[in-house]
Amino acid sequence: MEYHNPVLLKETVDGLNIRPDGVYVDVTFGGGGHSREIMSRLGENGKLFAFDQDLDALKNAINDERFTLINENFRFIKRFLRFHGIKQVDGILADLGVSSHQFDVAERGFSTRFDAELDMRMNQKGDISAYHVVNEYDEQEISRVLFSYGELKNARAMANVIVMARKDKEIKNSEQLKQVLAKFLPAHKSNKILAQIYQAIRIEVNQEMEVLKEFLEQSLEILKPGGRLSVISYHSLEDRLVKRFVKNGMFEGEPERDFFGNFEVPFKTIEKLIVPTEEEIAINNRARSAKLRVAEKI
User: Fold this and answer.
1) 119/244 same-domain check
2) Count of Cβ atoms closer than 10 Å to residue 84 Cβ
3) Which of 130, 182, 224, 282 has CB atoms 3.0–4.6 Å from 120's, for a disulfide?
4) 108 and 96 share one domain
5) Residue 161: in which H helix or E strand, if any?
6) Are residues 112 and 87 in the same domain?
7) Was 31 annotated as part of a binding site?
8) In the chain, how long is the greatest CA-to-CA distance?
9) In angstroms, rounded to a whole number, what is the distance separating the alpha carbons of residues 118 and 46?
């Protein structure tokens, strides 16, 4: 099964500051690139747990007694680590978003390049698909999804057009969705706008923002003091959540300050924002929007 090169491989794993006998978690296993790099730095007493809800990823499992692959969404990280007898770990790696493999398999419906059924589920057993969002959400809900997760200024008008079109016949595939929204897709910008539309629907289908918040809150509990968090995000919505949480342990607002105006911070930032080199982007186009943040639990 073809999986592409992992993004920011060395930088992300370097950020974990691997101890040979440590316990680490890769919450986005995918093709296993990051996990294999972590394994190469572990000694015989080290352990790596990996999560991936995508059934396709199971075919890439690493045959090593130090390695455990858990076929679950990483929003359940604490529960499943406890099941395996692990309460705290030395480092957690997350490479967010959709894997190159998921984009490249036409029938999964993630890519604007293919005509495919409206699916976009990272977990093939998930209840809500892109079809469900497009055909069953009401106009206000569709507008919310497109505006909040696609940052589309004319989300309300797009939602209205979708709802009017589906009264005649259901919108089953990506080609039909493109035709319905054709007036919002001028030739010079169509790929960019389509990508925003797809991103919005995908985030809703997979509850990506809620999952990320739950994961970050649990990571603070699971990491040992001095443990590292290494997170790659691909769009501003994700990066904003990671940045805010690392800075003050909150997603919105400001923490309560003491009499002197100080507040406790959960992490210290290890590196400034890390982005791929031009050379990596030339080799791996998926890397172009990647942003890596590394933090250490205080």
Assistant:
1) no
2) 11
3) 130
4) no
5) helix 155-168
6) no
7) no
8) 63
9) 42
Q: Looking at this protein, which amino acid is placed at residue 234?
A: Y
Q: Distance between CA atoms of 53 and 262, rounded to whole angstroms?
A: 40
This prediction's pTM: 0.92
The span from the CA of 293 to the CA of 95, in Å, is 11
pLDDT tens profile 139-162: 999 999 999 999 999 999 999 999
Please state whether beta strands 23-26 and 47-51 pair in parallel, antiparallel, or not at all (unpaired): parallel
Q: Are strands 267-269 and 291-297 parallel, antiparallel or unpaired?
A: antiparallel
Phi, psi of 67 (to 5 degrees): -115, 135
Establish whether 43 is an annotated binding residue. no
The rounded distance, in Å, linking the Cα atoms of 207 and 189 is 27
Assess whether pLDDT exceeds 90 at residue 41: yes
- Residue 119 is labelled as binding a ligand: no
What is the model's pLDDT at position 118?
A: 92
Question: Does the annotation place 249 within a ligand binding site?
Answer: no
Determine, yes or no, domain membership for 41. Answer: yes
- Residue 74 known to bind ligand: yes
The number of folded domains in the chain is 2
Range of the domain at 181: 103-206
Q: Please say which residue of 160, 179, 206 terminates a domain.
A: 206
Instruction: Check the annotation: does 196 bind a ligand.
Output: no
| Cα–Cα distance measured from residue 173 to residue 290, given in angstroms and rounded to the nearest whole number | 29
Instruction: Please report which residue ranges of the chain form alpha helices under DSSP H.
Output: 9-15, 33-41, 77-83, 100-104, 130-136, 139-150, 155-168, 174-180, 190-206, 208-222, 236-248, 278-283
CB atoms within 10 A of CB 210: 11
User: Of residues 286 and 210, which shows the higher confidence score?
Assistant: 210
Find residue 239's DSSP bridge partners: none
Tokens (6 digits) for 75: 């929003």
Same domain, 150 and 183: yes
